[in-house]
From TrEMBL:
Protein origin, superkingdom: Bacteria
Protein name: N5-carboxyaminoimidazole ribonucleotide synthase
EC number annotated for this UniProt entry: 6.3.4.18
Stored Gene3D superfamilies: 3.40.50.20, ATP-grasp fold, A domain, ATP-grasp fold, B domain
Organism annotation: Psychrosphaera ytuae
GO cellular component: cytosol
BP-aspect Gene Ontology terms: 'de novo' IMP biosynthetic process
Keywords tagged on the record: ATP-binding, Ligase, Nucleotide-binding, Purine biosynthesis
Self-association state and partner proteins as the record states: Homodimer.
Pathway(s) it belongs to: Purine metabolism; IMP biosynthesis via de novo pathway; 5-amino-1-(5-phospho-D-ribosyl)imidazole-4-carboxylate from 5-amino-1-(5-phospho-D-ribosyl)imidazole (N5-CAIR route): step 1/2
């Protein structure tokens, strides 16, 4: 029987109903909220303090990490940038899904590039930067337009530099003069002229069976995802199949279990892998209202050894990231088919505060509803709707 953790009753009911999530942010929160219907107990681990906490109200629970790991039927994670010792401890239990190999591939761009190369999966041409002089090699091989990224710990546009001119090259090389390349190698990628970014959310169970959600079209501002449109318009069956083939190769190589997200650049009718994420993903939030089973519930089903839920699409959805602003007024809910998911964080710039899923029975109805929503959100967020409203 699922437990709320707002009472003093026992946290650990039995060894068959506890799932431990490494990380205690909004992804852990949403896994908890959508998985309680499965009759499972969900706790999270604050990766910084190593405390076991309630994934919703973040209260510290009277349970050590070792006790939680011992009692759990499965251990999973909400993000890949975890302390190595915590990953190793989880892996040693034999219950960590996806495994440490998958987490490493998502956490380190160099490991990720090696994985893709070994599988002959198309990705952006790149050069590994292990010393300052390697930038000259990158410029010669990749051309004038380069995206430079830290190999680890980069997300939402952090840990990136854009080299689009000779002056940019001079400035960034000077900026990196004192950079510790031994501690943090960089990856230089050729800047690709792509038509759009797409992502595939797939799910793999313990027996290696796969299910897929349809490709999602994503739009960014200042390096952050701000809008997802699902299912992505104008996707051919062949394009969806190419994405699924890449997913199968990666998941099978990693002995994967759980939700795996792959971000692609579409170039003509080809797909280049931008990056992989071994977890539930921001571009899959639309599945909460758009599908029979959300990515969050399906991830918990997979790692718990339950049958996977249907990924059938019920309605087209626009997912709007609510970044850096206070909660919208209740007037928003006068708009039909609008669903706010709020993370209960303190407001700061570039922080993901929540998201809005806007549902329509048809693509045209979705557009009409998004136009209404635009009037109820801050101007800085409303402008991010242009790719959908101006198409």
């Amino acid at each position: 029987m699922a437990q709320s953790y707002f009472s003093d009753t026992s946290i650990v009911k039995s060894e068959s109903d506890l799932i431990v999530i490494l990380g205690h942010g909004q992804l852990a929160r949403m896994m908890y909220l959508e998985a309680t219907q499965l009759g499972l107990n969900i706790v999270a681990v604050n990766a910084n303090t190593k405390e076991v906490v309630n994934p919703v109200n973040k209260s510290v629970l009277p349970l050590s990490v070792d006790e939680a790991f011992s009692a759990a039927v499965a251990i999973t994670s909400e993000f890949e940038h975890l302390p190595l010792e915590l990953v190793e401890k989880a892996e040693a239990t034999g219950k960590f899904l996806p495994n440490a190999k998958a987490i490493a591939a998502g956490a380190d761009r160099i490991v990720e590039k090696q994985l893709l190369a070994g599988l002959n999966i198309n990705n952006c041409q790149h050069v590994i930067i292990r010393q300052l002089d390697d930038l000259e090699i990158a410029k010669a091989e990749l051309g004038e337009r380069i995206i430079l990224k830290t190999s680890r710990d980069g997300y939402d546009g952090y840990g990136q530099w854009r080299i689009f001119s000779d002056q940019d090259f001079v400035n960034i090389k000077q900026e990196l003069h004192s950079h510790n390349f031994d501690k943090m190698p960089l990856v230089a990628e050729r800047c690709i002229n792509f038509q759009r970014e797409l992502s595939l959310i797939g799910i793999t169970d313990k027996n290696g069976n796969h299910l897929f959600y349809p490709l999602t079209e994503n739009h960014h501002a200042d390096g952050q995802l701000v809008l997802s449109i699902a299912p992505a318009p104008k996707v051919t069956p062949e394009l969806q199949q190419k994405a699924e083939i890449a997913y199968k190769k990666i998941s099978e190589q990693l002995d994967y279990c759980g939700v795996l997200a792959i971000e692609f650049f579409q170039v003509g009718e080809d797909l280049l892998v931008n990056e992989i994420a071994p977890r539930v993903h921001n571009s899959g939030h639309w599945t909460q209202q758009g599908c029979a089973t959300s990515q969050f519930e399906n991830h918990i089903r997979a790692v718990a050894g339950f049958p996977l839920g249907s990924t059938k699409v019920l309605s087209p959805v626009a997912m709007i990231n609510y970044v850096g602003h206070a909660k919208p007024k209740a007037d928003l809910f006068a708009v039909p088919n609008v669903h706010l998911h709020w993370y209960d964080k303190s407001v700061r710039p570039k922080r993901k505060m929540g998201h809005i899923n806007v549902v329509g029975n048809t693509a045209e109805q979705l557009l009409q509803t998004v136009r209404q929503v635009k009037a109820f959100i801050p101007e800085g967020l409303a402008k991010n709707l242009a790719p959908l409203l101006n198409q």
